[in-house]
Specification:
heterodimer; A: about 180 residues; mainly alpha; B: about 100 residues; about 75% helix
């Protein structure tokens, strides 16, 4: 049963990932990305990471993809992306290096484990304090408390930076084009 | 029909494939929004690896790390899309070839 779910999900995830880079319309790319992200949360459920699966749906599939689609509709769908590559060997080199990268990941990761130590931070399930949400929360707020606090700083910086970038430079493209061209 | 038992290797190879597809897409596409989606794909593949090893090594740390990756992805999307919107105000399209001068 697990095998069936895995292979169906893997097919959906790979099809979605290929769709992202093949689709000409960015909206279609975003929807293919959504397909990959949802099938990824199925894998998280199979791997007994319940909280991560829910967060994947809520944050990635909802917030981030909606943000992408919002920006695409704000900017207008740009389908005139040129198929003619300005750099001569870009395409074959990109695919070649991609194959090389895949081979490297599989060979290196297959042969060398970092340590292979088990349960360094803590076991997945504890007899006394069971439940995935509880275990993850305890780890986040004890072992990783400093990283968690720095995360808050990072988010504040990102939000402030986003607001500043969006507010500054109120030039209109039409006025700019008329003045410079 | 007998199906194989799904071990961690299957998940790791799937994650490697998704990461590679994301990297190749990043090199092939010229639309900055699609390039961002490819980065999301690569981050997600890394997340899948983390969760796989959390299960394989029975370590809750692998699942906790995913949240930090998620936060970095969210911050990156917020800033990156703001940059794209700021560029779009000056230029009418969002292909990477048009922003090769590192100036507005």
């Amino acid at each position: 049963m697990e095998a069936v779910i895995f292979f169906v999900g893997a097919a959906a995830a790979l099809a979605g990932a290929l769709g992202v880079i093949v689709a000409r319309n960015p909206v279609h790319s975003a929807l293919f990305l959504l397909m990959t992200l949802v099938s990824m949360s199925v894998f998280f459920l199979l791997l007994e990471a319940d909280l991560v699966a829910i967060i994947q749906i809520v944050v990635y599939a909802s917030a981030i993809v909606v943000l992408f689609i919002f920006v695409i509709t704000l900017l207008g769908v740009d389908e005139k992306e040129t198929r003619i590559e300005p750099l001569r060997f870009q395409r074959p080199l990109a695919i070649g290096f991609g194959a090389l990268l895949f081979a490297q990941i599989v060979v290196i990761a297959g042969n060398d484990w970092a340590t292979g130590q088990r349960s360094v931070v803590g076991p997945l399930d504890d007899d006394e304090r069971s439940g995935n949400v509880r275990r993850v929360a305890e780890t986040l707020f004890t072992e990783y408390i400093w990283a968690f606090e720095i995360t808050a700083v990072l988010l504040v910086i990102a939000v402030v930076g986003g607001v500043i970038l969006a507010r500054r430079s109120g030039h209109r493209p039409s006025a700019e084009a008329g003045a410079t061209s | 029909m007998n199906l194989p038992e799904i071990t961690a290797t299957y998940y790791l190879i799937l994650a490697a494939m998704l990461f590679t597809i994301g990297a190749v897409g990043l090199l092939l596409r010229r639309n900055t929004l699609v390039m961002f989606m490819c980065i999301e794909l690569m981050l997600n593949a890394a997340n899948l690896t983390f969760v796989t090893f959390a299960k394989e090594l029975d370590d809750i740390g692998g699942q906790a790390i995913v949240f930090f990756t998620l936060v970095v992805a969210a911050a990156e999307v917020a800033v990156g899309l703001a940059i794209i919107v700021a560029i779009f105000r000056r230029r009418p399209d969002v292909t990477a070839d048009d922003i090769n001068l590192l100036k507005g």
